[in-house]
Specification:
Shape: elongated
Number of domains: 2
Number of strands: 0
Radius of gyration: 24 Å
Order of helices and strands: HHHH
Strand content: under 5%
């Protein structure tokens, strides 16, 4: 067997193993009661992810402003403000 054939054969088995793993994961998520419960929890968590992320970034911005000692926070633009402005612009379209 040549080296090129060995590489092709190796790639086949890696792809085959990845396919089997993916199919087993999907079978668990959709085929078992515990898997469906975990999937529902994951979907519930991901529904409000953007809002939770925005709150988290806002907290980080406020802590950063406190560490810098800036008294006037209205002039400082935080990451959460930028994200909300992007959302407003994209929702208008």
């Amino acid at each position: 067997m040549t080296k090129q054939n060995e590489i092709k054969l190796s790639n086949f088995w890696i792809g085959f193993a990845a396919g089997i793993s993916g199919a087993a994961g999907l079978a668990f998520l959709f085929g078992t009661k515990k898997g469906r419960e975990n999937l529902k929890k994951l979907l519930k968590l991901s529904e409000n992810l953007d809002e939770q992320l925005e709150r988290f970034i806002d907290k980080i911005d406020k802590e950063h402003i406190k560490k810098q000692g800036k008294a006037d926070t209205d002039q400082v633009v935080g990451v959460a403000d930028v994200i909300s402005r992007i959302k407003q612009i994209t929702n208008r379209s």
